[in-house]
């Protein structure tokens, strides 16, 4: 398992790391009634924290995709189907977040109205219901705290109608996305598609591996050629050096001859002088 896959594994199996500290519900000990300032603060965080969740869910999808590829390489068809099913569920969750983003932004925009009005305005009932419903689905801190404030403001029965079996005022499509479980036939069809994608990826990886090995070999041969040229140049240098040495020795020869002749002349002169005496 490479470093990138290991990181994805940690992010996929742990709760969203950005929320780990926030998820400790210590705020429930201090926030025991409706608090306008608390509501204002938490509604301002809704979209940003939902966006964080979106990034985390995407990472979870990428990891499931990677696991499906490993299952393909091991020819583990059961694990492949499990991972494909997981991918399909995560895809629905990604689509869900994309769908509810405008709803969450509207609740943020209408936070002032919601703080002032004792009852939930009729035109905002559906949007408020979605935020309350998704609090337990995503376990995002700001959603949970806003839901907690709505419990104080509108009462527990109001919350129960939304979070209970009926899901009052919650869009049916949103509920279907949350409760989505792919059928066996759909998983089988998707598994075929994923298998084809895995085959393409495997071929591309093999091709890239061969090209890398080829480049490595050509790099080594290039280096050996450079060393060979260096040896040739060094031999040329030694030849030129020997030539220069031979030339210098040839130059020195007449000089030695001249010295010898001078010496002989000197000796003859001294001999003639001694004879005359």
Automatic annotation (TrEMBL):
It comes from the Eukaryota. It comes from Blastocystis hominis. This is Uncharacterized protein. GO terms for biological process: protein transport. Residues 185-216, 267-277 have a biased composition (Basic and acidic residues). Residues 185-277 are annotated as: Disordered. Residues 235-250 have a biased composition (Acidic residues). Pfam families: Ist1. Residues 217-231, 256-266 have a biased composition (Basic residues). Gene3D superfamilies: Vacuolar protein sorting-associated protein Ist1. Belongs to the IST1 family.
